[in-house]
Amino acid sequence: MKTIVSTPAAPAAIGPYSQAVRLGNLLFVSGQIPIDPAGGGIVADEIEPQTRQVLANLAAIIEAAGFKMADVVKCTCFLKDMEDFARFNAVYADVFQDAPPARECVQVARLPKDVRVEVSAICAS
């Protein structure tokens, strides 16, 4: 049975999609951008604070669904500029220290609200 997951601890969807969808022991988390859920604004323009906010938003949704960050099995990462790759990885590695999930990381022409990073996730329990 499909269940929609939503939490005020993460930014509301800015389009016709759910923050996440749970299907049995799987959770599909929509791409998160660096919106601060408290104020609704985009965090600083540097890649490190934007990445931290994106991963915090993912964690809030994942935890609201009853999962943990350790349950993440796959991430899709979008960067505005591949020159940010090493700095993005440094922050990402702090969150996924042990047994990091599978992932791909690609540069894209543009992201919503002209942010530097977006990450989606799939979890399994």
Helix-and-strand structural type: alpha+beta
SS strand fraction: 25-35%
Rg (C-alpha, Å)? 14 Å
Low-pLDDT runs of 5+ residues are none
CATH architecture: 2-Layer Sandwich
CATH top level class name: Alpha Beta
Q: What features would you highlight for this structure?
A:
single chain, 60s Ribosomal Protein L30, Chain: A
Note down, in words, how this protein is organized.
The chain is an alpha+beta fold. The protein has two helices and six strands. It has a six-stranded mixed beta sheet with strand order 1-2-3-6-4-5, covered by helices on one side. The longest helix has 18 residues. The relative contact order is 0.24. The model has no long low-confidence stretch (mean pLDDT 97).
Topology:
Blueprint lengths: L1 E4 L14 E4 L2 E7 L14 H18 L7 E8 L5 H11 L6 E6 L9 E8 L1
Parallel strand pairs: 4-5
Antiparallel strand pairs: 1-2, 2-3, 3-6, 4-6
